[in-house]
Amino acid sequence: MFYLIEFTINKTVAVVPQNWYSDGVAYWPNYRSNNRANRAVRNAEEPGSDWETYDARILKSCDQYLEARQHLNKSLSCNTSDLQTEEEEEDIRPKRKPKAIN
Hints:
Blueprint: E1 2-7, E2 13-17, E3 21-22, E4 25-28, H1 34-42, E5 52-62, H2 65-75
Antiparallel strand pairs: 1-2, 1-5, 3-4, 4-5
């Protein structure tokens, strides 16, 4: 099970596995890479002893990681391209108009 949570300190929203949340407190890894942190979430890794804890509240619970991510994307009211991981970013290029053939 995964939770869509809001960190109360800065009002940011994130997806965490059930084992990262307990009684209004959520663990968050101190990995340097966002990709590494996202992999830890997907795999529901056990929180490490050096992980930070933050006050948080549950916004929604979901059975699957992808379902929770979809709710996360819907809940964001800012520019989501800044928050997407490299895996989720799409290569968005403007389409070129075909040249007219004479």
